[in-house]
Amino acid sequence: MRLLTSAERRYLVKRLEDQHGVENAFDDLVLIQTGQGRIRATTKEAYDVACRLKRVQQVGLYVAKMVKGDVILSIEGSQLLGAAITKNVIELSEEEAEEWMKAAPIERSEKIEARYVVARCGDFYLGSGRVSRDGRIYPQVAKWRRIPEE
Amino acid sequence: MSPPAHDLVRIMSKIILSDDLRSYLDGLPDVELDLLLEAYERPLPEAFRVNTLKTYEEKILERLRSRGYSIEPIPWARHGYVASGGGDLGKSLEHMLGLIYIQGPVSMAPVEALDPRPGEVILDLCAAPGSKSTQIAQLLRGEGVIVANDISFDRVKALSSNLQRFGVLNCVITLADGRKYPRFAKEFFDRVLVDAPCSSLGIISKNWGIARAWSIGIVKRLSELQKRLILAAFDCLKPGGILVYSTCTLTVEENELVVNWLLESREDARVSEIRLRGLRHRPGITEYSGVRMKDEISKTIRIMPYDNWAEGFYIARIMKEVR
Question: Which one of A83, B166, B228, B287 is separated from B176 by 20 to 30 angstroms, measured CA to CA?
Fold first, then answer.
């Protein structure tokens, strides 16, 4: 369990502003670096309790992953930021949201310049998707989160 | 409409208890065996909590109703509902996004008895797979901390997934033997929940294999473990703190005798009343197999599967006196 350095934190905040227009992301939370570029967020109080205990496995929520300078938001990461996400957001219908949660690629007729977008269905945020060269968007939904195929 | 094939098998078959289990249940005071068998043969109601950490209750209820679910509130559980009709909630978008949490209706009662308050530091000692930890987190409303512990690495993975899906920021997951917890967290917590590993006689309708695997030897082994867990949990409480001990089983060895053992071991332990609106239950047993237990044990509650046509549970609420 290692806290993000202030330089790492500044970089994450800057990338979230560039990618998704979010200002001062996660500014009231403690950010923790875990393996493979993953970032968890928690409250100051929970972090203090974790420091006091033994055999701690995890603290707080997995909110994002840094991949080659891009930020991939988890479902909960995007839900936490919510309406603060103003750039590179795609709106899904209910049917598309179900497909997204099956990790099925989503087609969009318009060209998307960004490498990653955040999906939204009404008020509900569904995390990041990777935009491929063929224009399809591949949801970054963990296997355990997916709606099982019939 | 005909029931699906697997339900038909269930309807046509009758649960058969071993002679040992039948004679054990027959020997319990206040058990109606025919009703118990009927409850074991019925499927449990499908129930869920709306995750108010992520969304508004009314919004989710509207969405589900519009898809054909009929929804009734559970009187004893805040944000809890029983659903019928509609499809499989476990495959719904609401479940996958963590907007609802699927949990048995009576299984929501122990956390309601614990009654977590925002700002408190709470330990769930045997937390996996995390239903009750998420419920505690919900009642903390983001203020305070939930520490969710389990002894098994594999089970901690499920716990971690459920806390993630529920969106709990203020959680700490530990992997430790609950019996050793006071070594590093003595008198640290405002409230502690011990939903102890047990012989599960209250949830046989979920899995008839439980009845086949049951033996008095297992019950005795579990009872020894439970005594050590309840003592460890009590020692982790601050003076003035609240401990809830619960199991989903019906044996006296795993329930009243465990709580009685705590009362005999710790002078500052006091059983307090449990008030849960609309939940049918009966008082804890105070005399069993020639053993006379403390009168306070009658304040603990037993919930038989046929009381609410749902899971069977035992719940005790214990206060640590300030001295």
Answer: B166
